Amino acid sequence: MSGATAPPPLNIVLPPHPAALLRTILDAKEAMGKAFKDGNFALAEVKYAAGDIKSSIIESVGLAQKRVETRIDNIAGVKVIARHA
Predict the structure, then answer these.
(1) Residue 23 lies in a domain
(2) What percent of the chain stands above pLDDT 90?
(3) pLDDT band at 36 (very low <50, low <70, confident <90, very high)
(4) What pairing do the DSSP bridges indicate for beta strands 69-75 and 78-84?
(5) Does residue 48 belong to any structural domain of this protein?
(6) pTM for this prediction
(7) Contact predicate 80/70, CB 8 Å
(8) Are residues 64 and 85 in contact, defined by beta-carbon separation less than 8 angstroms?
(9) Cα–Cα distance between 82 and 74 in angstroms, integer?
(10) Facing residues of 80 across strands?
(11) Per the structure, how many domains does the chain have?
């Protein structure tokens, strides 16, 4: 019988400038927030000008050019969404 052994060390590779990576991520998140705000405002403008356009959009759509299959994979207890075109 042997005693408990320590787990092997984790080999984590950090980027040379983690602060630069963090700044890039934060900039992308801020840009995404602005894009969502602009999109919601544009949708509100369309609804105000044209009323409910849902039925006309659904009628004008034909067959989809691409199909996306979505499924949820369970990886080590974490649910990860997997999309395949």
Answers:
(1) yes
(2) 13
(3) very high
(4) antiparallel
(5) yes
(6) 0.43
(7) no
(8) no
(9) 10
(10) 73
(11) 1
Q: Is 5 a residue whose pLDDT tops 80? A: no
Q: Which residues pair with 72 in a beta bridge?
A: 81
> Is residue 70 within 8 Å of 83, Cβ to Cβ?
yes
Residue 4, domain member (yes or no): no
pLDDT at residue 17 greater than cutoff 70:
yes
CA dist., res. 15 & res. 9, Å (int) = 18
Tokens representing 5? 């052994």
pLDDT band at 15 (very low <50, low <70, confident <90, very high): low
- CA distance readout (Å), 33 to 6, 27, 30, 67: 44, 10, 5, 27
Instruction: Give the residue numbers spanning the domain of 38.
Output: 16-60
Q: Please check whether residue 66 lies inside any domain of the structure.
A: no
The pLDDT tens digits of the residues spanning 50-59 come to 888 888 888 8
> What are the C-alpha distances in Å from 85 to residues 67, 68, 79, 80?
6, 5, 20, 16
Question: Structure tokens of 51?
Answer: 């009323």
